[in-house]
Write a structure and sequence with these properties.
By secondary structure, this protein is of the alpha+beta class. The chain is built from two helices and six strands, in the order βββαββαβ. The longest helix is centred in the last third of the chain and has 14 residues.
């Protein structure tokens, strides 16, 4: 099953079309946020994270979702593994979506 996501951003710059890229999402427990941001800053020029509520094996936990565009799968994998280790988790979820964006 193919996942396609379209995003539109309104900016005060000339219009430009981004090349097709992959949007990655990393889902992890919301703890050690400073450490997570340090890991992300080492791997990526930019990213977005926001609060969420997750469930793992029936247990509710505060979570964050991290979105990264324009990174390689290898970079995302390395960051995900470092976050997993930092938070001492059994697993973190990584999703990838085909993305086409337009700067307006």
């Amino acid at each position: 099953m193919e996942n396609n996501v379209n995003y539109y951003l309104v900016l005060s710059r000339p219009a430009a079309v981004w090349k097709a890229a992959i949007l990655y999402r990393i889902f992890t427990e919301r703890k050690n946020l400073d450490g997570i941001e340090k890991i992300l800053n080492q791997h990526f020029k930019g990213y977005t994270h926001y609060k969420a509520t997750g469930f793992w094996e029936g247990m509710k936990e505060p979570s964050i979702v991290i979105e990264i565009q324009g990174a390689s799968k290898k970079e995302v994998s390395a960051a995900s593994k470092a976050i997993k280790k930092l938070n001492k988790q059994q697993a973190v979820l990584v999703q990838e979506f085909n993305l086409k964006g337009t700067l307006v």
